[in-house]
Every structure is written in C-alpha cells, then in structure tokens.
Specification:
Number of strands of chain A: 14
Oligomer: homodimer
Order of helices and strands of chain A: HHHEEHEHEEEEHEEEHEHEEEH
Number of helices of chain A: 9
Radius of gyration of chain A: 32 Å
Largest sheet of chain A: 7 strands, mixed
Structural class of chain A: alpha/beta
Distance between the termini of chain A: 65 Å
Low-confidence stretches of chain A: none
Strand order of the largest sheet of chain A: 12-7-11-8-10-9-13
Shape of chain A: rod-shaped
Mean pLDDT of chain A: 88
Helix content of chain A: 25-40%
Strand content of chain A: 25-35%
Largest interface: A-B, 53 and 52 residues
Chain lengths: 306, 306
Amino acid sequence: MDLNDAFYFVQVVEKGGFSAAARALNIPKSRLSRRVRQLEDDLGVRLLQRTSRIVTTTEIGKEYYRHAHDALARFEVAEVAVRRKTNTMEGTVTVSCSVGMAQFGLDLILPRFLQDNPGVTVVQRASNQMEDLIKGGIDVAIRGHMDSLPDSRLIQMRLARVEWHLFCSPEFHDALDQGDDPVALAGQPALVLGRPGATHQWVLSGCDGQSASVPCRVRFASDDMSTLKNAAALSLGIVALPAYVCRSEIDAGTLVRVLPGWTAGNPQISLLMPSRQGMLPACEAFLKFLKQELPAVLASDLPAAA
Amino acid sequence: MDLNDAFYFVQVVEKGGFSAAARALNIPKSRLSRRVRQLEDDLGVRLLQRTSRIVTTTEIGKEYYRHAHDALARFEVAEVAVRRKTNTMEGTVTVSCSVGMAQFGLDLILPRFLQDNPGVTVVQRASNQMEDLIKGGIDVAIRGHMDSLPDSRLIQMRLARVEWHLFCSPEFHDALDQGDDPVALAGQPALVLGRPGATHQWVLSGCDGQSASVPCRVRFASDDMSTLKNAAALSLGIVALPAYVCRSEIDAGTLVRVLPGWTAGNPQISLLMPSRQGMLPACEAFLKFLKQELPAVLASDLPAAA
DNA sequence: ACCTATCGTTCTATCAATGGGACAATGTGG
DNA sequence: CCACATTGTCCCATTGATAGAACGATAGGT
C-alpha cells in the first residue's frame, strides 16, 4: 500500500482526469496512470472507469475518495502545524542549567526573553546533575566546565568565561590576616560546592599569572550555592563561588571578597545542544538571546543590574 | 512530501526505535533511517533526537506524530471500507436495461435477488436509449441486438436468444385470414416499437428456415412495449414483440399469437460491463444470478410463472 | 573494566520506478 | 464528414531508491 497512490487518485478525481491532474501537479501523466492502477490492484477494486476520453469514479471509488480525502486533509493539518512553528516564533524551548545559573544568571534575563517572544514557552530544568539532553528532550543546556567537554556528538557553543572568587562575611574577613598572600588562608574553614573528598584545596590564580594551591578545612558542603552563600554570610567560613552569584551580597555588604588579587577558577560556560539542524526559530532565538545577554550577566566587573 | 515517510515516522515513534519498527514492518532499517531523515528535511524540522542507542521524539515531532497518526487512521478506514465491500456481499449494483426488460424480464427475478442478498442495493436504470456505461456509472447493461455489438472495449457476455412473435387481440385475429401464410398480413395495421421510417415491414422466419418480409401499415409507434400491448389488445393492429413480454396476456387470452409458425426476430440478449477486473462481489453475484435466471424468464416455451 | 549484543547511520552494487514519446481511441469544430 | 486536438495507456532507456553489510557507538551483563 503506497499512500502516495491514494494522493494521486484523489488528485485525479478532483481534477476530473489524468491529464488535468498531471498538469496541476506538474508530473507526467504516465505516472498517474501507473500509480492509480497500482492502487486499484492493491485494493483489488476498480476505482475509476476509463474511456480514452472520460474518467468517472466507481461507486466504491467515490467512497474511497471521501475517506482518502479526509486523510489527506489531516496530513495537510500536520504539515501546516509544523510549518507554522518553523516559520513563526512559536513553540517550546527546554533549557537545562544548574540551579545557580538559574537563580543568579538566567533569572535576570529570562523574563525579558519571555516578554519579547509572547509565543514562546520556556521550560527550565534546573538541576545540579548533568542531564542527558536527548533522553530529557532538552533543546539547550548551559554548562560550566574547566577543560573542554568530551561530549562528542553534541553541538557546543562557547559563551563566556566566569571568574570564581573567594567570599566570606565582613566579620570573618576582619578576623583574617589582611595580607594578600594565599598561604594565609591555609587551614581556614571552607564552604564547598559539591561533594568534596577527604581533603580539599582552593586553586587560586593571581592577576599576574602566578598560581597557588591552598589546603583548607571543609566545614560544610552543598550542591546549592544559595545555601553556601548564607553559610558564608553567617561567618561559617570561606566559600569559592562564581562572582556573578554573589554580586548582590557584595553590593549589600553582607559578603566581601577574599584576596581580591586572586581568582578561584575561571571555568568556561558553554551552550550544548543535540543538533543544529532542524531547530525551531523559537529555539534559535533563545540561543541568540543567551549568546547576547548572558555574558554580561556573568561578567565579574559589571555592577549589579538596577 | 512523501506520505510514506510520515507512515515510517509514525511507526518508528510507536515502536520506539528504528530497529524495532524495521522488525515490525519487515523492512531494512536503513530505509527507515533514510526516509525519516528525508521527512525531516522536507519539513525542515528535526522530529527525532537520536543517539546510537535511544530515540526520543522532539516536541514538534510529538505534534506531527499526533496529526499523522490521525491521518493514517483515516487511510485505514478508507482501506477497510473498500475491503469490506470486496469481501462481503455489499455495495450497489447499477444495471441498465430497456423498459421492456425491466417490466417483463427483470421484474420477475429481481425481487428474489434482493431477498437473497440483503446487503446489496440494486439501482435499475430502465431506458430505451442506450446509455454510456462509463459515463453513467453502470456496472452491467442488458442489451438486445440482432448482430454482434460493435462496442469494443466493453466486456460482452451472451445470455440468451429471445423470440419475437406477432400478436394481436383475439377479435382482430378473428378478422384476419386464418391461413398460415405471411403474405396474408401484408398491409395490416402495425403497432411498431421505436421510430419507424416511412415504410415498415415485418421480417419473419418460418420454423423450417424459410423467411418472409411483409410490408405493413404503421398505425402507431412507441418506445414503450406496454403501450403497444395495450393498443394491440384494443384491436388497433398487429404488434411484433418479444414473446416473454406478452406471456401474461397470452395466458389471459387478451392477446393471441399471429402466425404461430413464424417468428418476428430472434435477437441476442447480452450482458455488457465496463471491465471484468476489480468487480465487487455484489456485482459478480448479480451477473451470476442474471446468467442463471434470466434465460428461463426470456424463454418462449415456458409457461408463465405462478 | 572488559565483552557482547544492539543501536542508528553510511556505503555501494543492484534493481525497480520514472519520464517522455509513441500510440489508438474519441470528441470537436470547421 | 474529415482533420485535429486531447484523452489514457504502453514502451523502454535512464535515473533514482533500495537492500544488505560494514561501521562507530553505547548500554548492560559479568
């Protein structure tokens, strides 16, 4: 059963003949003749009665026509539905990111995207574990990584580098040695993101290229940056976090930066997507938006947004 | 746009993968892979996200699937509708015949066919002009003809020969010369079927092979055999008609046969149909029924049915 | 950490569908 | 009444799709 044959048959019926249908479809009439005959053979029924001059539909041909016509109309609907989404800014974009990126990065810009694109629905899946993009039906993931991602078949797009700084409460800072020397931090209580091993250390880079590794004492570890920030604000220790995450606390004075001349990491933020082709305009617009807006939000040297 | 590609896509979605669908359909998976990719290219959208291990449907793929699934279900309906009519004794049979054949031939047997085949609808188109079978959507025509029909592409099936006799009212008969000689009828008033020319004659055949042509005087001409019979019963003249048409009048004694040793024609009754292939069982059953029952009805030597 | 079964894709010789013209049949207009 | 235009079908060289194996990748069992 070749579904195209049904289409050809419907066309012949509607145009009132093989030649007319062939002209309308811009295909040779020999094809129409052959395919309709094939359809009749498949069904085991004569659908058209032909003279060399005129074509009429059998009783059963009329019935088949009605149903086939409906079916083809449905296909039309299916195609139109797709084309509408590919031509207009509609559809759903599913984005995966870490909780921190959601709270302190996307949170600042996502509302604007939603306002600018009323037809687009954004589904955010904030999680601190990497999700499988394909299994999860995720259109784009925002990932931070130190070295290049090994994920082979995924499309990668470098977005920005973010600086991680060391933070603590002003009170805690006052109690520290005020020198600009990393070694002074050795053994200090650390608030650590993720699951640290038995020993932990801050890997610091100076502004002039020097680096230092400072062992510390893990007092608290969490997947959640907000919780770590709160712990730091309560003077429980020193935390290494992306600069943009702590911007409002710095402005408010509830956290201060430790060792302003040193950074605690400079990971790459990249966008990952399953494939570049066949992407909805809505998704492309979202990508463009992220590429345009996110770097500024993640930059260390910008003041907080109004 | 290849509609089969949509079918393949739906199968892949429903079976949950290319390999599973290929196994279910008994086709190589390379075809599925190629055709689904082609569909995606045609639509300009990615419908499936693939790993070497897993396949998931895109958001838009899900939408396309829903519509395409509906459309395919419609095709299923179309096919089932046809197959039902080709497998069971259902459908409509359109038969064309002359008014005389309808009133005095088919009338006797058609009710039985309808009773025996409750699912079959018979549309009878009784007309004294030959209709175009194909233009008129006629499945089978019953035609009487003296020499072989020239209609080339139509299928012909010889059914029976019918004898035409000369009839008149008993009163009229009494007034005739009672000899068995055709020449005695010369100049008698004739009731003629169809549109006679200026002159008319009866062409008679004797039982032993002799023939005679008897000129007569046209008093009344009509397309309708019943009207002619009535005119004859009213002693308006002599009419040449198929024997079976006048059977009941002969039995009732309102008409008598003129020149019992002579016949006024012996045309062939044939069935004509547009084509033999792709015929509905209902139509085939009707053909078989006609072939089986009609000759007896048309026979000259049978008593009238009860 | 290997091994194996299975996944979807890709490659290429092979085969079937195709397209364009020829053809017989048949309305149509002069 | 005849020439012509147009109908649907048939024929055959050519082109495009296909089948089957090879392939890289991956998940799960051991």
